[in-house]
Amino acid sequence: xxxxxxxxxxxxxxxxxxxxxSALLWRAFFTTAVVAIVLRALIDVCLSGKCGLFGKGGLIxxxxxxxxxxxxxxxxxxxxxxxxIGGILGSLYNFLxxxxxRIYNLINE
Length: 109
What we know:
By secondary structure, the protein is mainly α. The protein is built from three helices and no strands. Helix 1 (2-17) runs antiparallel to helix 2.
């Protein structure tokens, strides 16, 4: 039932803040429906206890102080590597998007 409320709210926001177009309505509906299905699947997986702290009440961890999680120095390099890889991929995406949009503007002038 919650997912249908999220779906209706998302479509309402899209229609209100954007210009009304039929294509926009269907895009918003499809995207929100996919997100609702994926979240429902993730919540089901997490409630089975396979998500660590996420399995104790949903996908949002409000009460993280009740669990005793310890971090070690060996945990830092993977997190650092993820940050570097994410930064490189993000900058590559922005670079390629800039090139594509420049070419698109040249074609459509």
